[in-house]
Design goal:
The complex is a heterodimer. By secondary structure, chain A is mainly alpha-helical. Chain A has 23 helices and two strands. Chain B is built from six helices and no strands. Chain B is elongated and about 65 Å long. The chains are: A mainly alpha, B mainly alpha.
Chain lengths: ~625, ~200
């Protein structure tokens, strides 16, 4: 009996800890406690399963240094930055301005408000990554208007909830950051890989609305023209767009030709945008009347998000900033925007910082708890168990991806995305590498999956947010004075079902057309600014720390260069858990020898273990 | 019991003060990080000390604020299975969780971090990056964070016990129907509505 327990400790532990999580006690501490309880059990039982349980008391001492390693993780620093940015942006009322103006632009089209919501959801998603902020803004602004003009309740609520979750798949999303951290790949590559899938999902949403305008035109009516308080005049908008594109093209191709590609692009885009803005502002203040009022407002309202997108994504893609610094740039930009709009005071700043702090703390403690869990779980051969389980699946690569999709989808109905990312995702790395699956590709598939988990009833967060701000009771509309029925929870659930189906289609497309993602490898391997803390080169083989270095499907199991022995572990002289000798062990936060943080674990773009100097900026000595 | 409740209130005031104070470090980290990128691009220079400062600040924030987050009941839970249970049952789960899950973990981490920090101080541990910062204060954060968390777990046990015995009321502001982030966003939206800004 005891032998049976000892030899099957990994599955037992997994099931027990999952059951403990359901107690409703904070996840972070439950994971940690589960890890510690089973650590004790594991050590006691180790004599009964000598080959399998490799735990002994001294391993416990690793926890403090492992926590310290979580602390010096630059990538996760992006979490508070983007959260803070989202909260500040909420204050600046950028979302409201966008919805108002874009809604007026598209409103008189059939399905127009639906398109507007999707577009604004994408724009908000591309500036920050906070689903709650998007859903709440859209629910407060767009939902009443949609109800007023007779949109189908389910269609309206479903579209708002789904568009809000775009924030999780459109870079710079928190899901993608956490995913690349856990998969040990560069955030920049993850962003590049996510661009086409994200655009595709937006396209599919829009197609759905388009289909509704044909099949069920009553569910997505056009707004009467008088709702356009800004007046008509779409022609001048097209003219302005054409002019801006023309200027961009001209500057990019004919001026500044001695500049580098990136900076020429930036200069051209800035010139074109500045031109549009100047025309719009001049038109507004001097009453020139060259372009319509609608066009003026659309241009003015689009400038802040575009500027922020440039600040965040532009600087990351151009290699000016790391994703973390991109978040900081965005947060600074959001602060400036809120100040300009006179919407920031000490109180709101304090509240935003306070919320960010608490969110960051609980997220990071889930990670700490997950790593306490992982130390035990890997020590009792849990990694091997999961690997054998997943590798025994039929269908190879596709079979693996489909099964993982289904598992994560089901878990996503109950667990928060942070738990899935910190507990489940690391377990998938080994098998995925054995099968030669590109980890960025896997990351995007999981990312879409987790995005979907925000939508699945009954625990999807986006539904939660929308429910909390949409009226349950009947209400009198402010404009028409008509009585409007409250929104039932069932209507929201019904509304998201088509979008969940769309998500499934999107996942399948990404699985069967990996090129949507893997094009990131075609890019010229540029200097990867992900790790800016510069190490002294050639320091004890820490270079390829944990980096799953075979996106090309080399499938080298046991390429275990991570966690170089010993030195960084608080002087205990134990091998780092990376030294347990498990294949593909993704302990990507493992200590390199003391102090060499910023090692090049994220050399994704070349697909080879990068030599020390290649994937970081030139060392500062 | 009154003495214990006073102790709990004392612990709460300390952790809340520290939690609120460190939240400002996020603002500093934002500015430092954005500054790093800008300066590196414009002046083509960079400093390891400034780069390291980012994660120093970040570590200080999430480690030192963990106790405060616990006090505000904002560590995320999976309450799918338990949200239907009575308040009393959930109070018991919390009490037992604090005693058997949180306290041993926090205590163990304090015990393990002590030598980890002391050795570092004794060795004059400095980052190997050129111009890097002294490392032991960063390691110290781990120790301090878990000391605070341990203290907070004592306070939470006292409070939860008193609530079960009916001696005090549960603090309504820590009862969240929604994730706290959302509550905050909503209250901001409400405020604007009231002020007629929408």
């Amino acid at each position: 009996m005891i032998e049976f327990l000892a030899q099957n400790l990994a599955p037992i532990m997994f099931v027990c800890v999952m059951a403990m999580l359901l107690l409703g006690y904070p996840v972070a501490f439950t994971l940690a406690a589960g890890g510690l309880i089973f650590f004790v059990i594991g050590v006691e039982l180790s004599i009964f399963a000598p080959g399998q349980i490799t735990l002994s008391w001294p391993f416990l001492g690793l926890h403090s240094s492992r926590t310290f390693d979580i602390m010096r993780n630059d990538t996760l620093l992006a979490i508070p930055f983007f959260t803070f940015m989202g909260l500040i942006l909420e204050r600046s009322r950028m979302a409201e301005d966008l919805l108002d103006t874009i809604g007026q632009l598209f409103g008189p089209l059939r399905g127009g408000l639906g398109f507007a919501v999707i577009l604004v959801g994408a724009l908000l998603g591309a500036t920050t990554g906070v689903v709650a902020a998007s859903v709440i803004a859209m629910g407060l602004i767009s939902l009443p208007i949609m109800m007023r003009y007779g949109y189908d309740r389910s269609v309206a609520t479903g579209t708002i909830a789904a568009s809000g979750t775009l924030a999780q798949i459109v870079p710079p999303s928190l899901v993608l950051i956490v995913m690349s951290d856990q998969l040990g790949r560069s955030v920049g590559d993850m962003y590049v890989g996510a661009v086409f899938p994200a655009l595709m999902i937006m396209g599919l949403y829009a197609l759905y609305i388009l289909a509704l305008t044909i099949v069920m035109p009553k569910s997505v009516p056009a707004l009467p023209p008088e709702t356009r308080t800004l007046g008509g005049g779409v022609l001048s908008l097209f003219v302005m767009i054409a002019l801006a594109i023309g200027i961009h093209y001209a500057v990019f191709n004919y001026a500044l030709t001695d500049w580098t590609y990136e900076w020429r692009f930036v200069a051209a885009a800035t010139t074109a945008t500045a031109f549009a803005l100047i025309v719009a502002l001049a038109n507004k203040w001097m009453g020139l009347g060259v372009i319509s009022r609608l066009t003026t407002e659309v241009i003015i309202v689009l400038i802040p998000p575009l500027a922020l997108i440039f600040l965040v994504l532009g600087t990351i893609f151009l290699g000016i900033a790391t994703p973390t610094e991109g978040g900081a740039m965005g947060a600074t930009g959001a602060l400036i925007l809120a100040i300009i709009k006179g919407r920031l005071n000490l109180q709101t700043l304090k509240e935003a910082l306070d919320s960010t702090t608490k969110l960051t703390s609980f997220v990071m403690f889930i990670l700490i708890g997950a790593r306490v869990f992982a130390l035990t779980f890997y020590g009792i051969n849990g990694k091997i168990w999961v690997e054998e389980l997943l590798l025994s699946l039929p269908g190879g690569e596709t079979g693996f991806l489909v099964v993982v999709t289904v598992i994560v989808f089901i878990m996503g109905c109950f667990l928060d995305f942070f738990e899935i990312a910190f507990v489940i995702v690391p377990l998938l790395v080994g098998p995925a590498e054995t099968l030669g699956i590109d980890l960025i590709w896997l990351g995007i598939i999981l990312g879409i999956n987790l995005q979907t988990s925000f939508l699945t009833p009954p625990f999807g967060f986006a539904l939660f947010y929308l429910r909390s701000i949409s009226p349950k009771e009947d209400w009198d509309d402010e404009v028409t004075g008509e009585r409007i029925e409250g929104i039932k929870t069932g209507q929201i659930y019904k509304g998201v079902l088509p979008y969940i189906a769309i998500q499934f289609v999107a996942i399948m497309i990404v699985i069967f057309y990996p090129r949507l993602v893997t094009h990131y490898r075609d890019e010229v391997p540029e200097i990867d600014l992900d790790n800016v803390t510069i190490e002294l080169p050639n320091l004890g083989g820490s270079n390829a720390d944990g980096s799953p270095v075979n996106p090309g499907g080399l499938g080298l199991p046991g390429l275990n260069l991570n966690g170089a022995p010993g030195a960084g572990n608080g002087g205990l002289g134990l091998p780092a858990p990376g030294g347990l000798g498990l294949p593909g062990l993704n302990l990507n936060n493992e200590p390199p020898p003391t102090g060499t943080d910023g090692e090049t674990r994220e050399n994704g773009s070349t697909g080879l273990p990068a030599p020390g100097g290649l994937s970081g900026p030139p060392p500062i000595q | 019991m009154p003495a214990l409740l006073r102790l709990s209130a004392f612990i709460d005031s300390i952790t809340a003060f520290i939690g609120r104070s460190v939240s400002w470090l996020i603002l500093i980290a934002v500015l430092v990080s954005a500054g790093n990128a800008t300066i590196r691009k414009i002046f083509d220079t960079s400093s390891n000390a400034w780069l390291e400062l980012q994660w120093y600040l970040y570590g200080a924030v999430f480690l030192l604020a963990a106790a405060y987050t616990l006090q505000r009941n904002e560590h995320v839970r999976i309450d799918v299975a338990t949200s239907g249970l009575s308040k009393r049952t959930r109070d018991w789960i919390d009490l037992l969780g604090h005693i058997f899950f949180l306290m041993p973990f926090a205590a163990l981490m304090v015990y393990l971090s002590w030598p980890f920090v002391m050795n570092s101080i004794a060795a004059g541990d400095i980052s190997v990056n050129a111009g890097g910062l002294v490392l032991w204060p960063a390691r110290m954060m781990v120790l301090l964070g878990f000391i605070l968390l341990f203290a907070q777990s004592i306070s939470e046990i006292i409070k939860r016990f008193a609530i079960i015995r009916g001696l005090i009321e549960d603090d309504a502001s820590t009862q969240h129907e929604l994730p706290p982030l959302v509550e905050e966003l909503e209250s901001a939206a409400d405020l604007d509505k009231r002020m007629g800004k929408q």
